[in-house]
UniProtKB/TrEMBL annotation:
Residues 368-379 have a biased composition (Low complexity). Pfam families: PhoX. It comes from the Bacteria. This is Translocation protein TolB. It comes from Streptomyces griseus subsp. griseus (strain JCM 4626 / CBS 651.72 / NBRC 13350 / KCC S-0626 / ISP 5235). Residues 368-390 are annotated as: Disordered. PANTHER family: MEMBRANE PROTEIN, SLR8030 PROTEIN.
Length: 390
């Protein structure tokens, strides 16, 4: 009865917001309505393999690195609590970067693994150190990694995936409990999520695109609904010298526990863990809508809970990692269906983090932050290879 009442109340809110926006919900080209459960495009999950991962037929997995152990083929010891990640083309190979969501004394920062054209690991190294609880982040079009501190008045650090250039702190992007970042080269913004129960959704416009040393931080302003047009307002004091950024602009829209975000094809998708929602911000029309809401799932239980990091494949499918839940990465298709893509077994004390595709789209990287031990020192970083649709 509690779930049914929650669903009713949330549906009522969405209905009232539709009226507030003139009786019609915004319907984006990528996702028209909140996704509903349906069979996934790759079929049912098979029995767990030797790595404890259930995958669709035709897919395989391998372990790339384990926290506290040297990355095979290198002398580098992998960091604890692997979190947000991204990939970068590197000649005929590629690089996967990963944050460490631990304190400076425990090795907070970010690391990278380099692969050759066959997927063999050739190097691993540190790209950021002495930072605090770096959770998620985002890749930039100019091939840097934005690593975000998930602490009060945390910073964004711009890092070099190749490990050549020193990391640079970017205070102009605001000081708050940062979660993830997504660069929008089409409109010249970087979107930012905030992991607070009364968090906000931000965007940063650099003075010069490609240079994050200066610019304007804005916060999304809208009504109480979940769909329709939105606007933006400047944050008066991005440094949060006396007032937290989320409390500086009257009318700024509240998002319950901002997590991952990813930009592609004119849309920034972002997740909120407090209400298990996946949002879509249409950057061209400046509108928001829901791509998924667990309380609006009909005809059975919600397959996706504990929404967290998100990425997107070339086919337009969203891959959302669960923080808890069934330890799944779920797939939301442009046809508004949602289904598990993989499930990690025997690791109920962990969460899935850092999903990112190799540049050619044939491999998916991600981590189990605390692995089988349930401790940050037990993290495992995986690769899944298979016939991903393009």
């Amino acid at each position: 009865m509690i779930v049914e009442r929650r669903t009713f109340l949330r549906t009522a809110v969405i209905g009232s917001s539709a009226a507030a926006f003139g009786g019609t919900l915004w319907r984006g080209a990528a996702f028209a309505d909140p996704a509903q459960p349906a069979p996934g495009p790759y079929g049912a999950l098979q029995a767990a393999n030797g790595n404890g991962i259930q995958l669709p037929s035709g897919f395989t997995s391998r372990i790339v690195a384990r926290s506290g152990q040297t990355v095979p083929g290198t002398s580098y010891r992998w960091h604890s609590a692997p979190d947000g990640g991204a990939t970068y083309a590197d000649g005929s190979g590629w690089i996967y970067v990963s944050n460490a969501e631990v304190s400076p004394s425990s090795g907070g920062g970010a690391s990278a693994v380099r692969f050759d054209s066959s997927g063999t690991v050739t190097a691993a190294y540190r790209i950021l150190g002495d930072t605090n609880n770096n959770c998620a982040g985002g890749a930039t079009p100019w091939k840097t990694w934005l690593s975000c501190e998930e602490v009060t008045r945390g910073y964004v650090y711009e890092t070099d995936p190749w490990g050549v250039n020193a990391a640079v702190r970017r205070p102009a992007m605001g000081r708050f409990k940062h979660e993830a970042a997504a660069a929008d080269p089409d409109h010249g913004y970087v979107y930012l999520t905030e992991d607070e129960s009364d968090g906000r959704f931000y965007r940063f416009r650099p003075t010069t695109w490609g240079n994050l040393s200066s610019g304007t931080l804005q916060v999304l302003v809208a009504g109480s609904g979940t769909s329709g047009p939105v606007s933006w307002a400047n944050v008066p004091d991005p440094a949060a010298s006396s007032t937290q950024t989320r409390h500086q602009v009257s009318g700024a829209k509240v998002f319950n526990g901002g997590e991952g975000c990813f930009y592609a094809a004119g849309t920034c998708w972002f997740t909120t863990k407090g209400d298990n929602r996946v949002w879509a911000y249409d950057a061209t029309t400046s509108s928001i809508s829901l791509a998924y809401d667990d309380s609006l799932v009909t005809g059975g239980s919600a397959p996706l809970t504990g929404v967290d990091n998100v990425t997107r494949s070339a086919s337009g499918d969203l891959y959302i990692a669960e923080d808890g839940g069934n330890m799944e990465i779920c797939l939301i298709t442009p046809d508004d269906t949602v289904a598990p893509f993989l499930r990690i077994t025997g690791q109920s004390g962990s969460e899935i983090t850092g999903p990112a595709f190799s540049p050619d789209g044939s491999r998916l990287y991600f981590s189990s932050q605390r692995g089988t031990s349930g401790s940050s020192s037990g993290g495992i970083t995986y690769e899944v290879k298979g016939p991903f649709r393009g």
